[in-house]
């Protein structure tokens, strides 16, 4: 049931994202930083040589506070994190090539988490 809801939510968001309409998330499941978001960041962003504390000191994405430097809580469309994972230009998209784009469900979870206030939960 949760997966069906997330798919419908994703389709709705994609349909309206270019118009910058607000998405109704009142029935969306709560997305948590520790369970849903941190694992994505840890495995796809914060590896050594990328956005880890070692090798990329300019923009480490290791802690919640690090991530909040590129997130505007409550507004996915104003958040650099959401912008770069949705980038269509492969030269600007994160993670960069040759890595694959994040899965649609991962992108959706990040969007919902940001829209829900990007809480450290």
Task: Describe what this molecule looks like in 3D.
This protein is mainly alpha-helical and 121 residues long. It has a domain of 84 residues. The longest helix has 16 residues.
Shape: globular
Structural class by secondary-structure content: mainly alpha
* Number of H/I helices: 5
Q: Spans of 5+ residues with little confidence (pLDDT < 50)?
A: 14-19
Gyration radius, to the nearest Å?
14 Å
Q: Report the end-to-end length measured between terminal Cα atoms.
A: 23 Å
The oligomeric state is single chain
- What is the H/E order? HHHHH
The total beta strand count reads 0
Question: In a nutshell, what does this entry contain?
Answer:
The protein has 121 residues and is an all-alpha fold.
Which secondary structure elements does this structure contain, and how are they paired or packed?
Elements: H1 2-17, H2 33-44, H3 64-68, H4 80-85, H5 104-115
Descriptive tags:
about 120 residues, mainly alpha, 5 helices
């Amino acid at each position: 049931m949760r997966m069906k809801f997330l798919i419908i939510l994703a389709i709705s968001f994609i349909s309206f994202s270019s118009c910058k309409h607000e998405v109704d998330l009142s029935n969306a499941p709560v997305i948590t930083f520790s369970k849903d978001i941190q694992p994505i960041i840890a495995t796809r962003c914060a590896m050594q040589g990328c956005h880890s504390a070692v090798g990329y000191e300019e923009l480490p994405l290791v802690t919640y506070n690090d991530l909040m430097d590129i997130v505007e809580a409550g507004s996915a469309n104003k958040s650099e994190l959401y912008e770069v994972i949705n980038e269509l230009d492969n030269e600007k998209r994160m993670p960069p090539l040759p890595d694959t784009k994040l899965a649609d469900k991962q992108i959706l979870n990040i969007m919902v988490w940001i829209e829900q206030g990007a809480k450290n939960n």
